[in-house]
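Because showing beats explaining, we think one record worth quoting, sequence and backbone structure tokens together, and here it is:
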Amino acid sequence: MPARSLDRPRRSALFMPASNPKAVAKSRELPADVIIFDLEDAVAPDQKEDARDAAVAALYRGGFGHREVVVRVNALDSAWGKADIEAVARSGADAVLVPKVSTPEDVLRYHEALTNAPTELQLWAMIETCSAVLRLDAMAALAKSTRLALWVIGPNDLAKDMRARPTPDRRAIAPFLSFAVAAARAHGLSILDGVCNDFNDLEAFAAEAEQGLILGMDGKTLIHPNQIAPCNTVFSPSAEEVEWADKIVAAFASPEARGKGAIKLEGRMVELLHLEQAERTLAIAKKIRQR
């Protein structure tokens, strides 16, 4: 199975329609951590094959630097899904993102479809149906035996499937977001929050990104380059968080803390679980600085 880098920055994951040559070219210069070439929702049926060819050509050309490059394919049971997966499997992409994964059997189908792909190719899955949220733990458990490495929340489709009314606080789907994070963490998956549709209201976007951070998301998917900067800001450790993480690591490394599961630090009780969190914070911050 592909190696899973849980401390790799995935703050911002920008969807780019693979059918738009200017967007594809521009993606090499944008400060997003992840570029997702979309062959599904953003592409009209009569442009699907051209979009696939364009995405593969862009991947062959390369030049994306530190960015992970992912392709969202059409569903396997669509007219384009099988050809999409075959093309992406040999394109050099970091991951293939598959839509509307609703059951463990769906995960296994996509895993099988990637049998001949390079070992390092990851399987990312959209969580965007009522069926999916009822099977989160069973699907996440397949991370141990398949290529499954990351979930992307699809809030628009999930709300539609529920017949819920979208609100700024995402009240209707908030419980499912928490359940998805818990299932992902239980089985070593990364997880990205879904898109915010109003790309002109960056204050509303930042508030939604903050909600995702509070819930435990690793980052957020985006639909416009204007959302990248505020997203990176929200999901980057602050200077204060890095300073505190440094203090925790130093304190546990001191001779006085040797063999202890909890210590006092500046009037607070700090445990080994806080050490683990601090080490991850410093690893993420270091990788962000290197970019």
About this structure: DSSP finds twelve helices and ten strands in the chain. The two ends are 27 Å apart (CA to CA). The chain has a mean pLDDT of 95.
